[in-house]
Amino acid sequence: MSKFIQWARPYRRVSLIAAAWALVQVTGVQGQELLYVASQEEVTVAVIDMSTNQLVETVDLKEFGYSETAKAHHTAVEPDGSHWYVSLIAAGKILKFDRDNQLVGETAFETPGMLSLDPESDLLYVGRSMAAVNPPQRIGVIHRPSMELQEVDVFFPRPHALTVDTRGNRFFSASLGQNSVAYASLGDEDVDLLGLDGMNHMLVQFAVSPDGNWMVGGGQMTGDLLIFDLNGEVPEVVNSIEVGGQPWHPSFTPNGHFVWIPNQAKNTVTVVDTRSWTISNVITHPALAEPHGSAVSSDGSTIYISGRNVAGTYRPADGGDGRPGTVVA
Predict the structure, then answer these.
(1) Of 171, 186, 232, 275, which is most buried by a Cβ count within 10 Å?
(2) How many angstroms separate the CA atoms of 273 and 153, rounded?
């Protein structure tokens, strides 16, 4: 079910993508579907044409004056492809680029991590990085046209997992430090808190189903994928699936029938059938090296998984040196 992307030589900039961390897709100009992959160690963003699986450009953020330790982490893209955003953990910045990959704005935010864009408003939500030991107990809300930022109290330590549910008109954030999920209406500063049972899951990231009925989140400590029912005013955990291996950034397929979950500590990807909430497949491949991010093509035909490969278990196909990050389709 999986094949490793072999980049054509004219498009190669580094040994594939160095320490790829996060995937975000967009349908851009003339229907071109692009994938933006942040590289934390290289402080770059790779732009991949999803129709050809070619690396078409590598945006080096160091060329815009950011340091070699800025740590590019996560990306978000406007629905029309006009702008994209990237968080820099150590630099404490969220950057805004146009479709020509020119820097057009930035805003400061302490140790930014996950980004989630509300496509039906001008708001961009920002969480805190996992690397932040004791960040403020607030998330950021950016007005994208002006890049002005406000902070919203979530009342728990280390807010990391973050997603926007446009159908339910809500955002969700989860704590790495305790079993709590904060949620509120989009644009609202008054959050409600949902407590979770059991040991601390350390929810890494959420994904909401296309119909808005379900949300899933992976627990780094428990290895469980939690399933939330979003149909009521209060989200409810109705099921959990043991996938193991530190489930990281999940993605639903466009029809909502499957969730793909990278298992960072197992070097595998688990596929869950949402119609029965059972595991339908576990995928392995040499290039699934500490798999981290995921994204799905708009027609659901291709799923992309990024791998950190910090341990260097994967070596480049051309025999080169180094510890390149990977993207597997």
Answers:
(1) 171
(2) 35
